[in-house]
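Box 3.1 A note on notation
Throughout this textbook, protein chains are presented in two layers. The first layer is the amino acid sequence; the second is a token string describing backbone geometry. Keep the layers aligned when reading.
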Amino acid sequence: MTNTKRKDPPKESVDENDVEQIEEEEAQAEEEEVLETESPMDTVEQEDAPIPTSAIDRVVLPGEVVGKWMENHPIRIGPGLSQINDRIVVTKAGVLRRPITKYFWVECHQKRYVPTQDDMVIGIITERHGDNYKVDIGCSQVATLSILAFEGASRKNKLNIKNGSIIYCRVTLANKDMEPEVACVSTRNKSEGYGELNDGYMFKCGIGLAYKLLRDDCAVLASLGRVVPFEIAAGMNGRVWINSGSRRHTVLITNAIINSEMMPDDQTKMMVDKLSSYFTS
């Protein structure tokens, strides 16, 4: 019986240049994997849209680039967003929202209101100087309202609004170095809901809740509408005006709206049903 020894195949010598090449290929592969898993806010240039739909309803932080300006896709940006050159940059921490088509804004919880052009706000007439009214809209400066900034108003046909009256108006000029200006007409010079709000009751809420009330799919307003009839005007400055048939209904609507600020939709409906059982019985 003969003993046989197993011979291993000779080991190949590895060149140092080959090792460096392998390491470079591995590093390049890792970089490609990172690029594939980047946030949609970092790859907005790859999508054919000013702001990609994948960025909607996501938490954004100041300084993030969420989109780019495209001439063939015009959009409107609201509070929390700013255009710097051809990029759309976040200026406030919050959640990126799109309540209507081609309009984007950042939903955040803040108490101090900063005017933005085309904001729908609720103001209080404080005084009149010549042909202008002074309006408190809840910001650091008093806004100016021309007596001609109403539908059908003229030098001969002037509206006489008393001090303390509540109006629903639109911000037409917003500049940090100038007093804001408001008007009670739309961009088409029509009233379209703007003007003096008679009777009713006004209360303050968070600015984030006010934006929530302006959405078409607002759960608390839909639930209240099935219980009691009422009118409502929500301002982007954190003021809400309601008008209902009785004081009990006004208390119900006010409490339901304030309580719904941090509630999900399913809990909001249960809360409205529970409150309505006390106030409508």
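Helices lie at 16-36, 207-213, 219-225, 247-259, 265-279. The chain is about 20% helix and 25% strand.
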